Amino acid sequence: MLHGNLVVASYPCLLVQFNNITQRMTYDDFLSLEWTVRSINARAYFEQYPNEERIHLCTSSSDLFFSFLPDELVALKAMLAQAVARLHWYVALNKSLN
């Protein structure tokens, strides 16, 4: 089962949880991650690298990569899209309260 979650720990610090990955990041880093994942064309990637089974994404640490199977990438894209919508709502609500 694939699942994920976005936790607003203490805005702008966020925790992104997806399967066995938990990553702390800033709001801007999160938006960058979502854009990167949304922009991936899995079909083109696997056509270019036919021997690969996973798509590998860099992290802010040059020695750490996350690798996703195609169905995991689809689930990650959906989770991040939903999280962006919730996060924008949270930021707008926060601004209206201040």
Order of helices and strands: EEEHHEEH
User: How large is the share of residues in beta strands?
Assistant: 25-35%
Q: Distance between termini?
A: 39 Å
The overall average pLDDT, rounded, is 83
Based on CA atoms alone, the radius of gyration comes out at: 15 Å
The description of the largest β-sheet is:
3 strands, antiparallel
Number of H- or I-type helical stretches: 3
| Helix content range | 40-55%
Total number of beta strands = 5
Strand order of the largest sheet: 1-2-3
- Structural class by sheet pairing and helices: alpha+beta
The general outline is elongated
Spans of at least 5 consecutive residues with low confidence:
none
- Oligomeric state of shown chains: single chain
What would your notes on this structure say?
It contains three helices and five strands; from the N terminus they run βββααββα. With 98 residues, the chain is an alpha+beta fold. The longest helix is centred in the C-terminal third of the chain and has 28 residues, at 70-97. It is elongated, with a radius of gyration of 15 Å.
